[in-house]
Every structure is written in structure tokens, then in C-alpha cells.
């Protein structure tokens, strides 16, 4: 069974068009050059659809890493 972390990593790799092996739990907008503000919005929209969650404006600004996305999704799914 695929866990949230793996789904999020795959989604970010696909959205940012980078090799999935270059992304891990510590990856972020700071470490992935292709992950810019436009890609951030694509990631947010896809996560909202995939996990049936909604991000507040502040979340969109603050959630800028795989780890933070995993934590957010895990907390929302409790």
C-alpha cells in the first residue's frame, strides 16, 4: 500500500518534472529549482483533489516542503 509521503513525492516529481529519485522527505522549494510559485499552486490544487482537503491561504505560503505537506495531510486525515 502506498503511503501519503510516497504519493506526495510522486506528485511533486511529476508536477515539477524532476526525477522522483531526487526527491525525499527533506526536499523543498529551496532544494528543487523547478519548484517555483506556479508549480506550488499546481501542487496545492492536485493535493486538494487527491486527498479531498482544502488549503487556507496561509498554508499555501507556508507549506513549502515534502515534510510539511506530509504533516498537513496526515493531520487533515485524522
Beta-strand percentage range: under 5%
Helix content: 55-70%
Q: How would you classify the quaternary structure?
A: single chain
Nearest-integer average pLDDT: 95
Give me the strand/helix succession. Answer: HHHH
Q: What is the tally of helical segments? A: 4
- What distance lies between the first and last C-alpha atoms, to the nearest angstrom? 18 Å
Question: How many DSSP-defined strands?
Answer: 0
Shape: globular
Structural overview:
With 78 residues, this protein is an all-alpha fold. Helices cover 58% and strands 0% of the residues. Helix 1 crosses helix 4.
Question: Could you name the key traits of this structure?
Answer:
mainly alpha, 78 residues, 4 helices
Topology:
Blueprint: H1 4-16, H2 37-51, H3 57-62, H4 66-76
Helix pairs in contact: 1-2, 1-4
In short:
It is built from 4 helices and no strands.
